[in-house]
Amino acid sequence: ITPVSPPGVATPEAVNAAIPAIAQAGAAPPEAPISRTQQSWELNDASKRGLFNFRPHRDTYLLLANYSDASNDEPFQDFTPGGVKSQHVELTFQLSFKMKLMEDIAGTPIDMWFGYTQQSFWQAYNRKASSPFRETNYQPELMLVMPINKNFAGVEFNYLNLGLVHQSNGQTSTLSRSWNRVYAELGMEKDNLAVTARVWHRLDNGKTDNDNIDIIDYMGHGDLRLSYRNKGHEYAVTARRNFSKKHGSMQASWAFPLKANLKGYLQLFSGYGQSLIDYNYSQKSIGAGFMVDL
Fold it and tell me: Rounded distance, CA 146 to CA 144, Å?
């Protein structure tokens, strides 16, 4: 015998069917996804992690073989007896991180960050020359980052970054290369495409003991980086140009998933300034290895 509920009384089946709808109606709306740029720079409350936590800054990678079509051995002629005959294939790696030093400075949404990037070019396979490090560049920087988080014409304007950066190779005499800059950087996103546009001004160009007084002629006054991510793959292009001197460079890369945070990495470069010792030397290179994607 099937029980019959009195008129106006809901059956158990009706109650069970209504529960999911009631729960869904009372549930809070899902939060909007946090973009990679917002996470990297902690641009909203959901991405905040506090002070002195390491974050990725620029790419961290290892090129097991980086082939260059030309080697710039001239700076070593006066510095090393007999000079150096570098090989066209070397091992190249870059380490880069940043951390937040101050948060919401003076009641504003502005944060202060410290960043560090080190890039090394190692003649690891040049056994005849005792496998020297041909060049290492050190780049510490301080940055004031202001969140924007405004959408205009479908483009998300994420942040404005004002930075002070020093870059040098730690060498002396004819091998010494260094410069100091202030820069402004704008970060933007649209779907899977991230864009950063940066302009800079050199601070130490007037020094009489400057070893690379014309570095702006080759490195330009800023750079533009485009990065597109899709299904674990990342395609990136970074370009620099001094239009009056007609010098510049372009670097393109492709990172593809291997396992967890380890990715395969392919890098192409053409132009001036792949390293500081080569700031006024044009070359083309191709390298392959791994990138750590954190």
Answer: 7
How far apart, in whole angstroms, are the C-alpha atoms of residue 66 and residue 106? 46
Question: Of 71, 166, 270, 282, which one is the catalytic site residue?
Answer: 166
| Phi and psi angles of residue 40, each rounded to the nearest 5 degrees, phi first | -65, -40
Catalytic residue (one of 68, 168, 253, 285): 168
Count of CA atoms in the C-beta half-sphere (13 A) of 181: 23
Q: Are strands 178-190 and 155-168 parallel, antiparallel or unpaired?
A: antiparallel
For the domain spanning 47-292, the CATH number is 2.40.230.10
Is residue 200 within 8 Å of 221, Cβ to Cβ?
yes
Among residues 275, 250, 252, 253, the alpha carbon closest in space to that of 264 is found at: 253
pTM > 0.90: no
Beta-carbon neighbour count of residue 134 at 10 Å?
22
Question: Is 166 in the active site?
Answer: yes
Instruction: Please report, in tens digits, the pLDDT of each residue of the chain (294 residues total).
Output: 545 555 555 555 554 555 555 445 555 555 556 688 999 999 999 999 999 999 999 999 999 999 999 888 888 877 666 667 889 999 999 999 999 999 999 999 999 999 999 999 999 999 988 899 999 999 999 999 999 999 999 999 999 999 999 999 998 878 889 999 999 999 999 999 999 999 999 998 766 667 889 999 999 999 999 999 999 999 999 999 999 999 999 999 999 999 999 999 999 999 999 999 999 999 999 999 999 987
- The answer to whether 168 is a known catalytic residue is yes
Q: What is the rounded distance in angstroms from the CA atom of residue 259 to the CA atom of residue 173?
A: 44
Q: Is 232 left (phi over 0), alpha (psi -120 to 50) or beta?
A: left
